[in-house]
Every structure is written in C-alpha cells, then in structure tokens.
C-alpha cells in the first residue's frame, strides 16, 4: 500500500516524557516496520513520511545511498525550517560527491592528533569555569556557568569567533533550531549567516590561527568554494559543535545527579567508567529528536515496507537507541553496557566529524566535576529543567548545590 493510501497516520514530532526520555509511542511503533506519520512542512502545511524506529532499519536508512539527504531536491523533506532560497543549510543536507567535497575541507580539523593538542587548553577552561562556580552563592546554575559556557568558548576559539560575540551566536543558534516560530527562526538564521560572512571576509584580510581563516585562505580565496558554502560549513560546525555538546554535557551531569548509585559507580576507581558512561548517556538521552530526514531516490524495501520513489523518510535515532533487541532494558542507564553501537554520532557517510572533540570536552568536564565537587546535588526538580519544542533535546537550566 502506498504512503498516501495509508489511513493509520499519527502526527509527528512526538513529545518526550516529563523525565526527558524519548516519547513512549516510539516503543509501540518499534514493534512494527516503518509506519506512516504526518510531518509539518512550512508554517501551516504537512505531508506524510515513513518513520523508521527499529535499530537495524535506522542503520540501513543512514547507510542507503538511495535515501537522499539533499534538501535542494524538489520535494525534499525539511526538519529545520530555514529561509526560502537558502538551501542547502550545510553539507550535512547534501549527498556525495558534494557532501564529501565540502566535508573533506574540515576533515583535518578533527583528527585525533589535532584534538589531543587541545587537551590542555580545554582543561584550563574547565578549571577556570569551575573556579568561578565555586565562588558563586548557592544554588548556582551549572548550565549557565559551565555546561553551556565551555563548548561555547571551545568552538569560538576553534572557529576564530571573538569571545565577546559568543552570546550573539548562542542566541541565534538556539532561535534557529527552536522551530517554535519559523518566521523568527528565519530571521535568526539570516542574521547568523550575515555575521559569519562578514567574519570570513575579515579573516581573509586579517587571518588568524583558526578554522575560518584557513577555510577563507585555502578554499574561498582560491575559488574552491563560494562564500555561501564557507558560511554553511562554519554554521554547521557552530551548531553541531556548540548546541549538541552543550546539552549532552548537561545531560551527562543530570543523569548522575538524579541517581546516587549510578554516580557512585561512575566516580569509583578514579572515574574508570567515565568514557563508557558518556557513550551510554548519549544512547539513553538521544538528543537528536528525530532530526534526520531523507527522500527516496528510487523504489526500495526498508524494513519490510515498500518505500516509493519520492517518499519522505524520518529516521528516529532515539527509537533506534532504545531498541530492546539491541540494548536490554533501554530505559535504564547502565555504565557497564557495551554501547559502542549507539547511533547518536550518526552512522555511515554522515558520521559526526566532531566526535573526537566532543568526547574530549565531555570526558574532561565530567572527570573534573566529579573530583572537585564530590557533593554536588541538584537544587531543582529534574522534570522542570528540560527544553521543549526544539530540535535538540537538552536543559534550560541546571541549579545545583554542593
């Protein structure tokens, strides 16, 4: 039966529980092959799409070249609304070879070797921010002082964005991905893009030791990329490097604050379980909020469903990461679990390039926090701290005492 002929259609996206876990409906939908959902498209329109929820089907969908990420194609589904005529928003929303061409221009920025060189500067930042936290009256907002600020400063220095402008791009990034009001998101997207274009032109005249300067000199000045492509690359690094890491660091901490037994396990043996806990925390929270959408380039079978050419597909990473057939008792954070196959980093050609840097920030921040604040406690009901109605799951604040 075709997608449009199916009568059993539910509205998407779904809302998380009060505890911040993926929507319970995903557990029911995962019992069946990909199912039809109604997804928003534009301010007041909608369309149908296949929702992929089972782990194996999610991996297939992320790897299958017949499912296109290219948002410039006619009829391509859109998850993050951007101003008309601004497609593609980044190379993440392109297919190879264009995706590979643009992605390759920043490949060396996130190698393990280069990230290792950032270890000491990142640790210094962490120490400075926690010194500031220690001097504040209690309760203090750990998110505002630490988990939101650390990735902001790291990505600003990596890109070459002046630190005094960090508040501007935090606000514009958050507004762009909130998607609560597309018209407001359009304005924020345009303002951020204009700012980055001006900064790139400035870096071409006055270069520094930063990513924007290297892109401007090595690729834009030579004609290898346009200014719009340069801005798209930087905008993606900015959003992915700041917004996702910010919220994951906060959720890593929140997971320990609400479970003393889990916290004791992770803190034991000088934090030997910290790296595995972080990966498990990423699986559990799955902050991507079903942000991956695709369009079928040809007829194909996906999890036993006949997907027709032109059909839209929504890939649910939270559902795949909570598949009971792969992760037993998925609603429980188990720091001893082998969680190496989780899907939060993506899979296949769109695997997150910034994973090494994000892992460094998350591991150093959690180790240092556990050591310096062994009596850290939440000062708010965890149910009240979560963000709602945004593309990336996270928190608005995180009050703590110690």
Summarize the structure.
The protein has about 400 residues and is an alpha+beta fold. It has 15 helices and eleven strands.
Ends: how far apart? Answer: 58 Å
Structure classification: alpha+beta
Strand content: 5-15%
Unreliable stretches (pLDDT < 50, length at least 5) are none
The strand count comes to: 11
Count up the helices.
Answer: 15
**Helix-strand pattern:** EHEEHEHHHEHHHHHHHHEEEEHHEE
Give, in spatial order, the strands making up the sheet with the most strands.
1-2-3-9-6-4
The CATH class is Mainly Alpha
What is the typical, i.e. mean, pLDDT? Answer: 91
Descriptors:
402 residues; 11 strands; single chain; alpha+beta; 15 helices; Cytochrome p450; three-stranded antiparallel beta sheet
């Amino acid at each position: 039966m075709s997608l449009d002929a199916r009568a059993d259609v539910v509205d998407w996206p779904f809302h998380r529980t009060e505890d911040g876990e993926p929507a319970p409906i995903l557990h029911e939908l995962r019992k069946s092959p990909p199912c039809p959902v109604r997804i928003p498209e534009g301010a007041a329109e909608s369309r149908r799409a296949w929702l992929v929820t089972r782990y194996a089907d999610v991996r297939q969908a992320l790897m299958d070249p017949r499912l296109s990420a290219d948002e410039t194609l006619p009829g391509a589904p859109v998850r993050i609304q951007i101003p008309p005529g601004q497609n593609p928003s980044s190379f993440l929303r392109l297919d190879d070879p264009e995706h590979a061409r643009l992605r390759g221009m920043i490949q060396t920025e996130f190698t393990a070797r280069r990230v290792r060189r950032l270890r000491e500067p990142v640790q210094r930042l962490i120490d400075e921010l926690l010194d500031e936290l220690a001097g504040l009256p209690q309760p203090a907002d750990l998110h505002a002082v630490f988990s939101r600020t650390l990735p902001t400063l790291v990505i600003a220095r990596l890109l070459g964005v002046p630190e005094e402008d960090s508040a501007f791009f935090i606000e514009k990034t958050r507004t762009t991905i909130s998607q609560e009001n597309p018209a407001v998101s359009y304005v924020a997207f345009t303002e951020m893009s204009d700012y980055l274009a001006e900064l790139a032109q400035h870096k071409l005249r006055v270069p520094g030791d930063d990513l924007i300067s290297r892109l401007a000199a090595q690729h834009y000045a030579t004609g290898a990329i346009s200014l719009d492509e340069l801005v798209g690359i930087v905008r993606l690094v900015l959003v992915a490097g700041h917004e996702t890491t910010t919220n994951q660091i906060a959720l890593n901490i929140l997971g320990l604050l609400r479970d003393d037994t889990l916290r004791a396990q992770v803190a034991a043996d000088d934090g030997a379980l910290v790296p595995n806990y972080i990966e498990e925390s990423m699986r559990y929270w799955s902050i991507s909020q079903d942000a991956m959408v695709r369009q079928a380039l040809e007829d194909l079978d996906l999890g036993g469903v006949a997907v027709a050419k032109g059909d839209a597909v929504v890939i649910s990473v939270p559902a795949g990461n909570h598949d009971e057939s792969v992760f037993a008792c998925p609603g429980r954070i188990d720091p001893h679990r082998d969680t190496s196959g989780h899907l939060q980093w993506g899979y296949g050609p769109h695997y997150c390039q910034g994973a090494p840097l994000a892992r460094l920030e998350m591991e150093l921040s959690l180790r240092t926090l556990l050591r310096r604040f062994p009596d850290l406690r939440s000062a708010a009901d965890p149910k009240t701290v979560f963000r709602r109605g945004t593309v990336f799951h996270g928190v608005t604040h995180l009050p703590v005492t110690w």
